[in-house]
Design a protein that fits this description.
CATH class of the largest domain: Mainly Alpha
Largest sheet: 3 strands, antiparallel
Distance between the termini: 40 Å
Helix content: 40-55%
Shape: extended
Strand order of the largest sheet: 3-4-7
CATH superfamily of the largest domain: Winged helix-like DNA-binding domain superfamily/Winged helix DNA-binding domain
Order of helices and strands: EEHEEEEEHEEHHHH
Number of domains: 3
CATH architecture of the largest domain: Orthogonal Bundle
Strand content: 5-15%
Radius of gyration: 23 Å
CATH topology of the largest domain: Arc Repressor Mutant, subunit A
Structural class: alpha+beta
Length: 215
């Protein structure tokens, strides 16, 4: 996955394979692009260990928990095993964000939350409404991620490639060796399934007494 002059490569093989690929890549960059590959920044990391890429941590999830689908053709499958995880680094990103925004302070080695001065003059209802709006925003973002992860692997990969990586349906079809029409139908059905997932999730949330309770 490239971005400007940063890239990450996934290898289904041994560490020796990775070393060989790194060597060949370094030679290609030096000979063809007249550039130098930094040995300090070019690391070989096992897929179940976080690798830092564009400020985020990426790894392949290992999880043996299983679920069983309902119906007469129900089957058991692992929920998150071999799924790609994109995580926000706790210390480098989340804690720095909280300190920069004045949301927390550290006293005697203990991190404590801070009140928001901008809400001091608000009524109780305004304060609860403000927090509820933020919670709904985070919930909708999580719902979108869950909806994408609920799709079959090929369907989810095509939607990611089209909408997140900016690849055209023709480019996806050429890379997979299939027709553009099949990719188009797959993406359309995937979006419909995601929409159904999100609507169904919102419907279940509306029956939860705590969904409008706020903080």
């Amino acid at each position: 996955m490239p971005y400007a002059d940063d890239f990450i490569i996934g290898v289904n093989g041994s560490k020796d394979d990775c070393v060989q690929i790194k060597k060949q890549l370094s030679e290609f960059i030096a000979n063809s692009l007249k550039m130098e590959l930094s040995d300090e920044k070019t690391l070989i990391t096992h897929s179940n260990t976080y690798a830092r890429f564009l400020g985020y941590d990426v790894r392949v999830w290992r999880d043996n928990r299983t679920i069983t689908n309902g119906g007469t053709s129900g089957f058991t499958k692992r929920t998150l095993n071999n799924m790609t995880e994109l995580a926000i680094p706790l210390q480098d990103k989340i804690m720095r964000f909280l300190f920069d925004r004045g949301a927390v302070v550290q006293k005697n080695g203990v991190i404590k939350p801070m009140h928001r001065k901008s809400l001091l003059c608000c009524t109780d209802l305004e304060i609860v409404s403000s927090y509820n709006a933020e919670l709904r925003g985070m919930e909708r973002h999580c719902n979108l991620c869950q909806a994408l992860n609920s799709l079959p692997e090929v369907q989810g990969r095509r939607i990611e490639a089209h909408y997140l990586l900016g690849k055209s349906q023709a480019e996806i079809a050429e890379a997979e060796g299939v027709t553009k029409g099949s990719v188009s139908i797959s993406i359309t059905r995937g979006l419909a399934a995601m929409n159904f997932f999100i609507k169904n999730f919102d419907l279940q949330s509306n029956f939860c007494p705590q969904s409008e309770a706020g903080i």
